[in-house]
Amino acid sequence: MSNLLGNSYRVTIFGQSHSPMIGAVIEGIPAGIVPDMGFIGAFMARRAPGGSPLSTPRSETDAPRILSGLNDRGETCGAPLCAVIENGNARSRDYDSLRDVPRPGHADFTAAVKFAGHNDIRGGGQFSGRLTAPLCFAGALAMQLLSEKGVRVRARVKRIAGIEDAPADLADPPIDAISEHGLPTLDGEAARRMAGAILDAREKGDSVGGVVECFATGLPAGLGEPMFDGVENRLARALFGIPAVRGVEFGLGFAAADMHGSDHNDPFRVRQGRIVTETNRHGGALGGITTGMPIVVRAAFKPTPSIALPQRSVSMGRSEDAELTVGGRHDPCVVPRAVPVVEAAVACTLLDMLLEAKEA
Amino acid sequence: MSNLLGNSYRVTIFGQSHSPMIGAVIEGIPAGIVPDMGFIGAFMARRAPGGSPLSTPRSETDAPRILSGLNDRGETCGAPLCAVIENGNARSRDYDSLRDVPRPGHADFTAAVKFAGHNDIRGGGQFSGRLTAPLCFAGALAMQLLSEKGVRVRARVKRIAGIEDAPADLADPPIDAISEHGLPTLDGEAARRMAGAILDAREKGDSVGGVVECFATGLPAGLGEPMFDGVENRLARALFGIPAVRGVEFGLGFAAADMHGSDHNDPFRVRQGRIVTETNRHGGALGGITTGMPIVVRAAFKPTPSIALPQRSVSMGRSEDAELTVGGRHDPCVVPRAVPVVEAAVACTLLDMLLEAKEA
Amino acid sequence: MSNLLGNSYRVTIFGQSHSPMIGAVIEGIPAGIVPDMGFIGAFMARRAPGGSPLSTPRSETDAPRILSGLNDRGETCGAPLCAVIENGNARSRDYDSLRDVPRPGHADFTAAVKFAGHNDIRGGGQFSGRLTAPLCFAGALAMQLLSEKGVRVRARVKRIAGIEDAPADLADPPIDAISEHGLPTLDGEAARRMAGAILDAREKGDSVGGVVECFATGLPAGLGEPMFDGVENRLARALFGIPAVRGVEFGLGFAAADMHGSDHNDPFRVRQGRIVTETNRHGGALGGITTGMPIVVRAAFKPTPSIALPQRSVSMGRSEDAELTVGGRHDPCVVPRAVPVVEAAVACTLLDMLLEAKEA
Amino acid sequence: MSNLLGNSYRVTIFGQSHSPMIGAVIEGIPAGIVPDMGFIGAFMARRAPGGSPLSTPRSETDAPRILSGLNDRGETCGAPLCAVIENGNARSRDYDSLRDVPRPGHADFTAAVKFAGHNDIRGGGQFSGRLTAPLCFAGALAMQLLSEKGVRVRARVKRIAGIEDAPADLADPPIDAISEHGLPTLDGEAARRMAGAILDAREKGDSVGGVVECFATGLPAGLGEPMFDGVENRLARALFGIPAVRGVEFGLGFAAADMHGSDHNDPFRVRQGRIVTETNRHGGALGGITTGMPIVVRAAFKPTPSIALPQRSVSMGRSEDAELTVGGRHDPCVVPRAVPVVEAAVACTLLDMLLEAKEA
After folding, report:
1. Which residues of A touch D226 (CB under 8 A)?
2. CB–CB of D3 and C228 under 8 A?
3. What is the mean pLDDT of chain B?
């Protein structure tokens, strides 16, 4: 089983790209919360396609509808909240040819093996990035609850096509300096160059990848569990649930592997009566447990596997090599739309840990 | 809760660095297996310290004892198998000063917060790398079962202190060319330079980090689940359970973020009647489900936080800045001993998925 | 968390009596199944009210709609199946007075405490028997899959208001002799007397309880797990999820407590080359594992707590004693409608065990 | 998987009747607790055999040893606590003949099927009542924690061989009047008659069953979850994990099925400013959530299946009918020793719910 995220804030996601609806059932929301549908809608709009030349021309109106979980005053009532989003604007025909010839880099082949050919091929079925919409609903609701606890979660595009955004102070990430317009970066010039690389890839029928960096501030120290249920384990589990993620790292991540201990260790200091670390190379967790410093996590996204160029594949039915040209409308780079998705996955996970510790 | 790994091959690890024993309870082992104690012992010896100038001079005799789970013929009987290892050779005094002054880069501070000062400070308590010994027991047993299915799991040191081992063909990793002696690498010269860097760091009272790369071959296509229970999610959850891991990536990992789709997608081909990918940049899983190609996963290890150099920290009791010099005996680099631990975490997880699919 | 049933056939139920919809998300359905909506609808109709003078005059049209989980050929595709049922015909006003004065025997008081007054009081909220409708959907789908394996699940009214149905041979339960019309019993005369007792209770503004007995035939031996995940543990967990259940027993159940071992032990015999028990006092499981004999389980239902007679209660707001007369429309006896619900809970659980053993 | 009980106070039990050790790993114990080994030992002694002519002459010295989970001050440290008990005094020869001929009423047959003949036949293997010893360890530790919260858990023999103990006021159970000597009952005369029935059965080579009734007082209202994770679901799951339990009921249980609603509903009243129910027919939980009234739960135990009389069985190897006389030393009635086991299962479950609600 696999569509469930979380222990205390439990999100079960359902749906396929072209099923009548997609949605999420959320258990564990504290009772008495009035979901801020304005905030949630705005958050989900950041993920929705169609708003930018950088993304797919498909337009999705991801207006969620809440089917259960609220009392007659519109408050959460302790029952599971089910929210659904209608699927529409589906061009199922686009995918018919993929039944036999799997798209390289996609789950068409593995799904066909696993589900003995019964997988829903339309639009990538349950493997579609579309399924991140209900995750964003759950994440936005989580962010609403987190913000009441002073916890903020904010991600940026760290890199696209090898173009880096400006470095950030991990111990005091400049969350408010992340641009709300265009690509969410610190450096506007970097954003422009990234956008150029994306449009360039699109023109060539190709795609590019990138890295999203997410910060979470305001968490208390002491959250998380040792060994297999720590901050990193849980965030990694959540983030690898986002399509196209190939790597996850915390703090300095892979760069730490090339350092000396004397350079990597973050000195503890007392500041305003509180124990902090002077630097934040550790990324907010030691031994799987929060230090109270900002969580810093990065996810690497591969280039969109759906490209317009002809590709080599196979005919599964005839068991022979084949050529494939992927039709349909696709993002030349998933990274911009992945930013709120990363935030959602992080927010769900952090709220889960706060609820487990009964601090939310 | 956090000490449990797996759904079908369920490993619960217990113990602290200086508790009377450490061990693991393993549920879900198929009945009728005779644990190969010679193989298991040899595997665990690869993790044990004391065998090399590159590691801590502490010597641990990690001879496991099986307390339950076998019938009178020495076969697994369907009951949980509990294996324990005695702790000995403990110098608890070494750690007394750490009660008040947490070691930078360690869990001393976060454990003190989480457990309100009741955490076991001796030897790092439950956060000690020593707890990877029972994980290795469980992993070695898993490898025994995997090998009967034709699945091999083998890791190497990919990088230490910035020194790279030779590149490998991810589609056909040269598992047997990984050296069994000294540092497990493909390139003996790289191994010598890495060893030099480790000894150099030790001499300076410092430490270095590195990257372990693990391959698993022989898996069928179709293992794993979509979304949050895929190959990557599970392996990442397991690997972030190993102390000092800061990043996990699959296939080309973070390098994929800088590529074009046309360069990253692995073409499908039919070879000897079987569908394979020509290259293996995806690292063995698409959509969280195995493709049948080798699993390729990398874990980044930070430099050992325990260094002999004086460090800045705080007195938690007096709430003021303090100096700290960490005594005790420590690895200047955990990476060499982490190689079998990574194999163990991977083996446990892959067996878990095979059992879930009833293919083991 | 509490709305999840099952490990391999995982049913998450959501909704409240008066929420826009109620429903279930089902993970773990084998791919390639075409849900038999005719069968499912007929099964759910057995639970639906309005069809009989013995039940509430509320009419519910429990037509389920499948939102996800099917491919374009209408087959299950490996993705979670979400089915919903519209709530309609709600008279929310009926319940307004209950916010302050909890109904004896209901969850009004405990829900108000647990959810700090935010619980959905309308129609009993998430505690309503209405939530058994999505359970019946999941159960009917489970029965469809079970029947393909030769497993049949059938329950009867064993007792209402102290009136017993005819005894059954537990080793060979006469499933097909259970009446499809009126009350599902073996003995038509008993059914008539039970119906009389129900109508009599209704006339007096009172209610009656009873016992449902469920049989499952055709299961292989060897299903279930020792200790806490055996047949009895799982079935009991499921059955106590049905509102009003106060006791669950297997085989001879509480009657076994008064017997001698020599009378209670079921002799093993070889019949047609198969090992069976001559009698079935054990009810189909020994040590939590199926013997291959029919599962026999009984659930005791308390009399409907909603009665028309005036009752003593309290004002929670004023913290003083109060009187209460429950309005609304209620079943004078939940037992008849509980019969398919018991079947559904049993079917979901047995399919779960079969899938876990990969025998379905 | 099946040897795990609880979500927040997680008890994993391991061992077989004749494995070197049996034990439990307990996760989730709050840090800073000093286990009261005197209390725990005394509690476990109530379960241990050998102390009475009413039980088996086997003597077990169930002295538990704690392998992990304590810091250097003997306090729980947040790490899993593993406690083990040595197995000794085993006469494995007694069971050799059972490999082929399964004992009626035992798990020999089902275990042989499930584990393909690899099950540990010695002493019943993992199905042995001996495995309730580590459960009692976990339960005694739970009771220590519960008593600090004012929660008391106490069971009595309600019935043996059809002989009833005196009735108790369920709203105010006379816990302290339960005899500590001989059979734990309210009525000494009933205890003597029960003892006579047990000795009589033993003399005839037979066995008798009975009912244990357990009370838990001092719980706050509001514990437990709706639907499948309520008080009843969890307690039933735990209690059916005790060998020989055939039925579980709450409050009036099966007797409620024969009542009218007007007789069964417990009126709410305000007493000393607190909302209580006047009577406690509901047994302490409504809608799966505690009311604050005493929990009342009953478990029916079948007569010990091991009897000295010759019985009919089969040869599994030759697939033909066979005769069997069970040797070894057995309790003619498990009920007396089951009393602390029931308390342990209840205590573990209630502590689990309190911890989940962060009230312990």
Report:
1. 78-79
2. yes
3. 94
Give A67 to chain D, closest Cα distance, Å. Answer: 19
CB A261 within 8 A of CB B304: yes
Please state the rounded mean pLDDT for residues D38-46. Answer: 96
**How close does chain D come to C121, measured CA to CA in Å?**
13
Beta strands per DSSP E along chain B: 4-5, 10-14, 21-27, 65-68, 81-86, 152-160, 163-164, 210-217, 245-250, 268-271, 274-277, 285-286, 289-290, 295-301, 311-315, 320-324
Of the candidates B212, B236, B237, the one whose C-alpha atom is nearest the C-alpha of residue B155 is: B212
d(CA B20, CA B159): 36
Question: Is residue B187 over pLDDT 80?
Answer: yes
Query: Using CA atoms, how far apart are residues C231 and C295, in angstroms rounded to an integer?
Result: 9
Instruction: Answer yes or no: is pLDDT of C88 > 90.
Output: no
Reported pTM? 0.97
Residues 91-130 of A with CB under 8 A from C: 92, 111, 114-122, 125-126
**Subunits with 3+ C-beta pairs closer than 8 A to A:** B, C, D
Helix (H/G/I), strand (E/B), else coil: C45: helix
Beta bridge partner(s), residue C70: C76
Task: Evaluate if residue A315 carries a pLDDT over 60.
Answer: yes
User: Which residues does A78 contact at the CB level (< 8 Å), separation at least 6?
Assistant: A31, C111, C114, C115, C118, C119, C120, C126, D226
One-letter amino acid at D296 equals: V
pLDDT digits (tens, 9 = 90+) for D151-197: 999 999 999 999 999 999 999 999 999 986 689 999 999 999 999 99
Q: Give domain limits for chain D.
A: 4-356
Of the candidates D274, D275, D296, the one whose C-alpha atom is nearest the C-alpha of residue D285 is D296
What topology does CATH give the domain C4-356?
A: Chorismate synthase, AroC fold (3.60.150)
- Residue-wise pLDDT for C124-147, tens only, equals 999 999 999 999 999 999 999 999
A265 in contact with C at a CB cutoff of 8 Å? no
For residue A358, give the nearest of D79, D226, D358 by CB distance: D358
User: For residue A25, which residues of chain C lie inside 8 Å, CB to CB?
Assistant: 3, 12, 14, 25
- In this prediction, residues B207-232 reach a mean pLDDT of 97
Q: What is the DSSP letter of B221?
A: T
Give the integer Cα–Cα distance in Å for D286 and C327: 20
Cβ distance D299 to D241 under 8 Å? no
Q: How many whole angstroms separate alpha carbon A145 and alpha carbon A62?
A: 21
Instruction: Tell me how close the Cα of A359 comes to any Cα of chain D, in angstroms.
Output: 10
Identify whether the C-beta of residue A186 lies closer than 8 Å to the C-beta of residue A146.
Answer: no
- ipTM value for the complex: 0.96
Confidence category of residue C71, pLDDT binned at 50, 70, 90: very high
Residue B120: closest C-alpha in chain D: D71
B78/C226 Cβ within 8 A: yes
Q: What does the pLDDT look like over A270-308, one tens digit per residue? A: 999 999 999 999 999 999 999 999 999 999 999 999 999
Calculated CA dihedral for residues D279, D282, D285, D290, nearest 10 degrees: 0
CB contacts, 8 Å: A210 with chain B: 257
- Say whether residue B301 is in contact with chain A using an 8 A CB cutoff: yes
Residues forming a β-bridge with A301: A210, A245
**pLDDT value, residue C12:** 98
Chain D residues within 8 A of A79 when measuring between CB atoms: 226
CB contact under 8 A, C78 and A119: yes
Grade residue B1 by pLDDT with cuts at 50, 70 and 90: low
